[in-house]
Every structure is written in structure tokens, then in C-alpha cells.
Design brief:
Layout (H helix, E strand, L loop, with lengths): L1 H12 L3 H36 L3 E5 L5 E2 L1 H12 L3 E18 L2 E12 L17 H5 L23 H8 L3 H8 L19 H10 L1 H5 L15 E6 L4 E3 L5 E3 L6 E7 L7 E12 L4 H4 L2 E5 H8 L10 E2 L1 E6 L5 H9 L7 E5 H4 L1 H39 L1 H9 L4 H32 L1 H12 L6 H4 L10 H18 L1 H9 L2 H7 L1
Parallel strand pairs: 4-10, 5-9
Antiparallel strand pairs: 1-12, 1-13, 2-11, 3-4, 3-8, 3-12, 5-10, 6-7, 8-9
């Protein structure tokens, strides 16, 4: 009982111990806040990566792809069908996208992805990232009459007012408006290196060649008021830019035409181009994807690139996206499929394999931050060590009296160990409460600091988040609090051992 009484008395009267309590408190609170924010960022990032990538990808090593997607999917079902929830074939190739912005023609490097619109959303969260509500239900690459004004995923954010206003007129309404001053599009296909003959030259050629004169001059005229090119879904960062206010300013809208230049299949590949009509945007909030991915119908991409065998009429594909059933380990299915296909032609990987370096970098950053922040608590431990040594010297006479009254060496040691544990418990408890409270109101605190300093603490134009994401993991909070208490106890062992070794006669004599 005397141990507890002395611990509480020292805690109330020894104000120098308050410095150790504050150090432990700040260390615990800081680690809780940092881990919650890092966990929130990592979770958001993994969700968005996994949202656009399926659980498993079976892909060809060649950009020309391999033939017979149904046959390969049948083979996959034969090997691991009991673990698979859905599959879809895709084709992808590096490409260039161009569009007109005022007097400037903008070119951007993209990844052109051909998808099966009927099944692609079943293997990923792609459908959830589309802006038009009808496309979220079922993508059809058709330009919509209206409904793009529902671009309001953060309707309470006034920075998006401009973007919503632009999207309000998107679709056929915007296409008809710009078609009033747009020049008619010539759909005649001209071979590379050839020149388009003028009307006078055509008449001269017709008079010189009687066979040409008798050929019917029929040409299909494309009417942009009522027709569209093959639909394309653009990553939102391709056709827009993020202003300092956090608002999206669009350079192209659904209803605009863009031109995509891509390599043909075969040897050697040749540059080809085709016009597409923007029918929607998708926003995964992963800038790597939003600024590079363009989705078009798989059948059209196979046709344009020459990926269809002229004899068998079987199209090539670059990859098969696979979604596994809930609870199934994708790595286990990957190992099954790797043993089935020839690795020199086909690569099987999970979504984590494809983004392994990025995820590993985030994990490493979190680990390094934890080590650095834990040094704060270690500094508090050294403070406890110094304070306890000072108390042992100052209380040498009291220790001698206690021992002369019958207190054992173990009892004296227990006083200081209990005192160290008490400092750790109080500091950890206050730090735990303060850290959790800070995490709960972190966005309000960030807004307040921004108003106070005049600079944004959290800029959505950089992070593509409108709020700071946080996740409090109970296991992490527990080991932080227990670690802080353990450091406080460990720091008190050496002074406690020195106090326990004091002989009562020697202690009283020197006093």
C-alpha cells in the first residue's frame, strides 16, 4: 500500500515529472495522428488502384496480343472456375490523343484500352467512377441527351460550381451547339502519303479516264448534328485541369470529337488514327490513371488496329481481367494459372503484383515515420531516467528510513517502477485521448489553420482529395500506448535498482 501512496504523492508534488508526462503524451498523440492519416491515404490509394484493376490479370507479353479470348477464358474456368466470379477481355496500347482548344491543338500521351462494355464493370469498380448515372448502371459508349449536370460527387463544395455549370450543357446539347460553327468533317479515308484531289483535279481525272468517269461518286456524309463517332470515355484529368481553388476546368466535354493516333498490329507497326466522340469521363482520383487512360469499345479497337484474323475472323486480346470470389486469395489462383499457361507468352499477376513498388514505398514510408516518431517517446524515456536518478539522490535519506523501518530492497525498487509505470499510463492516456480527438476534427483543424495562416494546409489540387482521409486502427493505437508505457518502465529500472541497493546505515550516515 505504501508504494501506491508514495507514487501518487510524487505524481502530485514533483512537478518536474510533468515534463516527462507531456513528452509521452505528445509522442503518443503524434504517432496516433500520423498513423491514422497514413492509413487513410494508403486505404484510399489501394481502393482506387484496386477499383480500376481487377483481382487478377492474365496478359500477353506482346502488344499485338494473342487470339481467341473465349478459348482462353474457357481454359481458365477449367483450371480455377470454382474461385472465379467474373472475367472480361481487354486490349491496350500506347497512343496519342489530340483535340482542339481554341487556336491550339493539344496532344497528350495516353493508354488506349479496349473493353467489353457489357462485362468490364463486373470485374472492377470502373462503373462507379463514370460521371453519367446511366453509364454507372451500364456503359454503352453512346452520347447522352442530358444528365451530365449530375457531376456533383462533392455538391457541397463550392469550388465545383464551374465544373457543374460546364457539364450542364454537355452531351448532344453541346455537340449541336459547337456543330453550328464547326467545319464539316471529311470522312474520306486517304492512304498515307497520298493527297486529297480537288474538285477540278477530280473532273480532269474523270475526263482522262473513262472507267473513272463511269464510277458512281457516292460518298457517305457525316452529320455531327445527328451522328457521333465511336464513343470514348476519357480520364477526367486528360480533358481538364485542376485549378488552385480545387475546381475542375474542362478543356473538352462529352460531345466533343477527339483524334487518337495508335500503332497498328503486325510487323512493322504503322501509325494510324481515328476520330472518337467523348461520351463520358471517369474519375478514380488516382492521377496516374485519370491522366492517361482512355476507354473505347473492344470490338472497334480490334477492327481499327487490325487485330482480327481475316480468315478465321477471331480477334486478338491483350489481357483477361479476372475477379475472384469473396474470401479467395488471388495469389493462390495466380499460382494455379501460372502453371497452366506458358510464361514466355502469358504473364499472370495480381493487382498487388502490378502495383507492388508503389504499395511497398507507402509501407516503407509509414515504417520510417513510426521509427522517427517513436524517438520522441524514447527522449521522454531518457527524461524519466534523469529525473529518477535525481530523485534517488535527493531522497537518499528517505530511502534509508524506509529500509530501516522494514521496507525490502524489492519494495523500494517497486516504488520507482510503479512511479515510472504511473507516468507512462498518465502520459499515454492523455496522449491517446488527445490524438483521437485530433483525428476526429482534423479537417476542421486544417481549415482553421488555413484561415489563420492564409495558406491551405491540405490542397485538393495536389492530393485529389477534398477531405483528409483518416483510419484509426485499434491494433496500432494499442501498441503505441503499450510501447510508451513500456519505455517509461524500462527507463525507471536503472534508478530503481540503484535505490534498492542503498544500505540504510550508509544512506543515513551520508545524510
Amino acid at each position: 500500500m505504501y508504494k501506491l501512496i508514495l507514487c501518487l504523492r510524487y505524481l502530485r508534488t514533483r512537478y518536474i515529472a510533468l515534463a516527462s508526462v507531456v513528452s509521452v503524451m505528445l509522442g503518443v498523440a503524434t504517432m496516433i495522428v500520423v498513423n491514422a492519416v497514413m492509413a487513410g491515404f494508403a486505404h484510399e490509394m489501394q481502393d482506387r488502384i484496386h477499383g480500376i484493376l481487377s483481382d487478377l490479370v492474365v496478359e500477353s507479353r506482346s502488344l499485338d496480343g494473342i487470339a481467341d479470348a473465349p478459348g482462353h477464358m474457357a481454359k481458365i474456368r477449367e483450371v480455377a472456375g470454382q474461385y472465379i466470379a467474373g472475367m472480361t477481355p481487354t486490349a491496350n496500347v500506347p497512343a496519342m490523343l489530340g483535340f482542339q482548344v481554341g487556336d491550339q491543338y493539344v496532344n497528350k500521351q495516353i493508354t488506349l484500352i479496349g473493353i467489353d462494355e457489357a462485362t468490364y464493370s463486373s470485374v472492377s469498380d470502373f462503373g462507379q467512377y463514370l460521371q453519367h448515372p446511366e453509364n454507372r448502371k451500364q456503359l454503352d459508349f453512346k452520347l447522352k441527351e442530358q444528365g451530365y449536370d449530375q457531376y456533383d460527387h462533392q455538391a457541397e463544395n463550392p469550388a465545383l460550381a464551374t465544373a457543374r455549370e460546364q457539364m450542364r450543357i454537355a452531351g448532344w446539347k453541346w455537340r449541336r451547339q459547337i456543330s453550328q460553327w464547326r467545319k464539316p468533317i471529311d470522312t474520306t479515308v486517304t492512304p498515307p502519303g497520298a493527297t486529297t484531289p480537288s474538285a477540278e483535279n477530280s473532273n480532269a481525272l474523270a475526263s482522262a479516264d473513262p472507267f473513272l468517269a463511269t464510277t458512281p461518286a457516292t460518298q457517305e456524309v457525316f452529320d455531327p448534328l445527328t451522328e457521333q463517332h465511336t464513343g470514348a470515355v476519357l480520364g477526367i484529368s486528360i480533358g481538364s485541369y485542376r485549378a488552385a481553388s480545387g475546381a475542375d476546368q474542362f478543356l473538352v466535354l462529352p460531345g466533343d470529337d477527339v483524334e487518337i493516333t495508335y500503332p497498328s498490329a503486325g510487323r512493322p507497326p504503322k501509325p494510324l488514327s481515328a476520330k472518337f466522340t467523348v461520351t463520358d469521363f471517369y474519375e478514380s482520383k488516382m492521377n496516374e490513371y485519370d491522366a492517361s487512360f482512355v476507354f473505347v469499345p473492344l470490338a472497334k479497337m480490334q477492327e481499327l488496329r487490325g487485330m482480327i484474323d481475316p480468315i478465321t475472323q477471331v480477334g486478338n486480346f491483350n489481357s483477361i481481367q479476372i475477379k475472384v470470389k469473396p474470401g479467395v486469395d488471388p495469389a493462390m489462383v495466380r499460382d494455379l494459372l501460372q502453371a497452366t499457361f506458358q510464361p514466355e507468352y502469358i504473364v499472370v499477376s495480381t493487382w498487388m503484383d502490378k502495383q507492388g513498388p508503389l504499395l511497398a514505398a507507402v509501407s516503407m514510408e509509414t515504417a520510417v515515420l513510426n521509427v522517427l516518431l517513436f524517438m520522441i517517446i524514447a527522449v521522454a524515456g531518457f527524461g524519466i531516467l534523469a529525473i529518477f536518478f535525481m530523485i534517488v539522490v535527493e531522497k537518499t535519506r528517505d530511502i534509508g528510513i524506509l529500509k530501516s523501518l522494514g521496507a525490502s530492497s524489492r519494495g523500494v525498487m517497486g516504488i520507482f517502477l510503479s512511479y515510472g509505470l504511473t507516468l507512462g499510463v498518465v502520459g499515454s492516456g492523455v496522449g491517446l485521448f488527445g490524438g483521437l480527438l485530433f483525428v476526429k476534427y482534423i479537417n476542421e483543424i486544417a481549415d482553421g489553420l488555413g484561415k489563420l495562416t492564409g495558406q491551405k494546409v491540405f490542397d485538393p489540387s495536389i492530393y485529389y482529395f477534398y477531405r483528409i482521409p483518416t483510419i484509426v486502427e485499434p491494433f496500432t493505437v494499442t501498441w503505441i500506448a503499450l510501447g510508451a508505457m513500456a519505455i517509461a518502465v524500462l527507463a525507471s529500472i536503472l534508478p530503481a535498482w540503484r535505490a534498492a541497493r542503498l544500505h540504510p546505515v550508509s544512506a543515513l550516515r551520508w545524510e
